[in-house]
Design a protein that fits this description.
This protein is mainly α. The protein has 23 helices and 13 strands.
Length: about 725
């Protein structure tokens, strides 16, 4: 007898999660639950490479000279399926590189070109990235040829640099070393808008007040890399656009001079595409039909390539010779008057009045046809904003200075999120140390570690003081752009020495001792700060009954104030630290969500977060000596008491104030401890509770201590790229 089907509709029997109509994700059912996905991304199971594959070693074997030759040849090897404008792909490749690097923002260090994330949603389908999928497909034969020795991230960034070289710019250099990710990033907040290119005032707008852009965002709209080329919310007004440009580029770590150089240099070559009706374009790559094979925005009704291409909707080149590096951008911008016009696609653009025929741009396919050059509203801001105008005039009058400034700014744009210079690989890495690279002198290793440890023990400083200082020194590290960390001992310099979160009075006391010990033994202060934290943890582990040596790698250097861009480092100031149970103020985002953000930036996993929070609590390392969450009667002992008592049903929990709870004995009602949301989440969240219960087991006391130490060392060494 045949089995009776219970799936008469023929639906797939596999539950695919929240992406299908027939299934709801956990977060859809319980939207207020803490989502730990930010800590679980880029799992080894998504990576097709062997566990021992090391891209930084593989790329050292790359034949850079051969690669450059192939890249230069590609620039003029036009393909019929996507022909090059004027027979040169330079403009397209530069736009691809720019839009990969241009997502970087200083507030949290996220975005940028260093992961190759432009291959994945949402970036691969952003409205501002229309047709950049074609640029990556043009590069595929080169990626296929050089294979594992060349990441997509490096190739995408390198393409723009070679494009500029092929068109006559003397570039500043290039560093390889960007490692690919293998699925979309879940940790980057791009905005809360519910639609692409949503104007100010729409649902989830990123603006408040006069025109205050929400942090950490840098772009003005969902789906844009920078500003709207037609003007604020699509309404041309160069002076208003100048405000947006300035804010956006500042959040990209660029000053006014770099901003003008990048705007002009990016528009010296290539063109905008809007010769047709944008409604004729098909879906973006992520939503295109399977037969499109990942290509998006295809025009099924008309030719859709060459002079008929539609991308931004604006139509035209900025200069007379868009495949040559020259000073034509400033010549046209400053010497002509400009008026508003509509492109064939209906977009606002600026065109010159009474332009000479020889200053017009030839057609991309027929050199007998000439067109007006165009400017975006952002370009006009370079002319109408007084500060930008002054810089533009200097560049116009000194083309060599413009070229040099742009080359440096382009290098910064494409390398800002790579971290210190010792992360750069290849023959074209510039020898010059740049301030934005956060340079650190070479440290020393040949001092007597035992003598240094003995002096630390004899210093009279408490375990809590030593641990808190080492933690504060290291916690600034951001894996997003590899900035911050303990190396350099910048915690003793402005602005870090004065940050509220670093408890300046306690910090000054501990630093005085560490500086004296460093001087006595010939070590760096950076090393002694970390070593002091290690010594304190060894003492705390011994008090718990475990003799464990905390691994230590000497060799950190001490940066000077001259090596430190205080303004730039202001973005690294902690305004919260769940690890030390501290909030600078109450925020609309919950304390536990802030903790996850900090944890992900530091490159930690959920189990590592669990042991570090638990260990720092029992070591008494809370901010200001607060007792919230110190769930132990033996402070200073590296025990699992925090987790044992948190999971003990002899206690109950009740809120008494905003972000403050009492933990009471059930039988007497007596208040035993106080705690915050960050403490209690390890008992309330089902995933975190599973980790808490694991480490609270009687047979895992030593495992807890050893795992805490392993996670501690990971934090202390997070910025030691010299150890890779």
């Amino acid at each position: 007898m045949a089995e009776k089907s219970t799936n008469s509709a023929g639906k797939c029997p596999v539950m695919h999660g929240g992406a299908t109509e027939s299934s709801m994700s956990n977060m859809a059912w319980w939207p207020k639950a803490l989502n730990l996905d930010i800590l679980h991304q880029h799992d080894r199971k998504t990576n097709p490479m062997e566990a021992d594959f090391n891209y930084q070693e593989a790329v050292k074997r790359l034949d850079v000279a051969a690669l450059k030759w192939d890249m230069l040849a590609l620039m003029t090897d036009t393909q019929a399926w996507w022909p090059a404008d004027w027979g040169h792909y330079g403009g397209l490749m530069i736009r691809m590189s720019w839009h990969a690097a241009g997502t970087y923002r200083t507030a949290d260090g996220r975005g940028g070109a260093s992961t190759g994330n432009q291959r994945f949603a949402p970036l691969n389908s952003w409205p501002d990235n229309v047709n950049l999928d074609k640029a990556r497909r043009l590069l595929w034969p080169i990626k296929r040829k050089y294979g594992n020795k060349l990441s997509w991230a490096d190739l995408i960034a390198y393409a723009g640099t070679i494009a500029y070289e092929s068109m006559g710019l003397k570039t500043f250099g290039f560093g390889f070393g960007r490692e690919d990710i293998w699925h979309p990033e879940k940790d980057i907040y791009w905005g809360s808008e519910k639609q692409w290119l949503a104007p100010s005032g729409s649902e989830g707008s990123r603006y408040s007040g006069e025109r205050d852009l929400e942090n950490p965002l840098a772009a003005v709209m969902m789906g844009l890399i920078y500003v709207n080329p037609e003007g604020v919310d699509g309404h041309p007004d160069p002076l208003k656009t100048a405000h947006d440009v300035r804010v956006t580029f500042q959040r990209m770590a660029m000053n006014d001079e770099e901003t003008v150089a990048l705007t002009a240099g990016g528009h010296t070559v290539g063109k905008c595409h809007g010769n047709g009706d944008a409604a004729q374009l098909g879906g973006a790559p992520e939503g295109a039909d399977i037969a499109e094979q990942g290509l998006g925005w295809n025009n099924k009704t008309k030719r859709g390539v060459g002079r008929d291409t539609i991308s931004s909707g604006l139509e035209g080149a900025w200069t007379t010779h868009p495949t040559q590096w020259d000073n034509g951008y400033f010549s046209l911008l400053l010497n002509y008057e400009w008026q508003l016009q509509k492109s064939p696609a209906g977009a606002w653009q600026w065109e010159p009045i009474d332009i000479k025929e020889e200053d017009k741009t030839v057609d991309v396919e027929d050199p007998a046809i000439r067109h007006n050059p165009i400017m975006t509203d952002a370009d006009m801001a370079m002319k109408m904003d007084p500060a930008y105008r002054k810089i533009a005039e200097r560049f116009y009058n000194d083309p060599d200075y413009f070229s040099q400034t742009f080359a440096h700014a382009w290098f910064k744009l494409t390398h800002r999120d790579m971290g210190p210079k010792n992360c750069y690989i290849g023959p074209d890495v510039p020898a010059e140390d740049l301030l934005w690279q956060d340079p650190i002198p070479q440290g020393v290793c040949n001092y007597d570690l035992q003598v240094a440890k003995d002096k630390i023990v004899a210093s009279g400083l408490s375990i809590a003081e030593l641990v808190a200082t080492a933690w504060d020194s290291a916690r600034t590290f951001r894996g997003s752009d590899r900035r911050g960390g303990a190396n350099g001992a910048r915690i003793r310099l402005a602005p870090q020495k004065d940050w509220l979160g670093n408890e300046p009075e306690r910090l000054s006391k501990v630093l005085a001792v560490c500086e004296g010990i460093a001087s006595d033994v010939g070590a760096s202060v950076a090393d002694i700060i970390v070593l002091a934290g290690n010594v304190a943890i060894e003492q705390a582990a011994k008090a718990a009954g475990f003799t464990i040596s905390v691994p230590f790698s000497p060799g950190r250097g001490d940066a000077s104030q001259d090596m430190t861009d205080a303004v730039s480092f202001a973005d690294l100031e902690p305004i919260h630290d769940g690890y030390r149970n501290w909030l600078k103020q109450d925020y609309s985002v919950s304390a536990e969500e802030l903790l996850l953000d900090r944890t992900q930036l530091m490159g930690l996993t959920a189990p590592e977060m669990t042991v570090l929070i638990s260990g720092l609590r029992v070591l008494g390392a809370n901010y200001g000596g607060s007792q919230h969450g110190v769930l132990t009667d033996r402070v200073g002992v590296l025990s699992n008491d925090f987790l044992v008592n948190l999971t003990d049903m002899r206690y109950s929990w009740k809120p008494v104030a905003n972000n403050l709870y009492e933990i009471c004995e059930r039988d007497t009602g007596k208040v035993k401890w106080t705690a915050t949301r960050v403490d209690l989440v390890f008992g309330s969240n089902s995933i975190l509770r599973a980790y808490a219960e694991c480490y609270a087991q009687d047979d895992n006391q030593e495992k807890f201590a050893r795992d805490f130490i392993k996670a501690w060392v990971k934090v202390m060494n997070a910025d030691r790229f010299d150890l890779l």
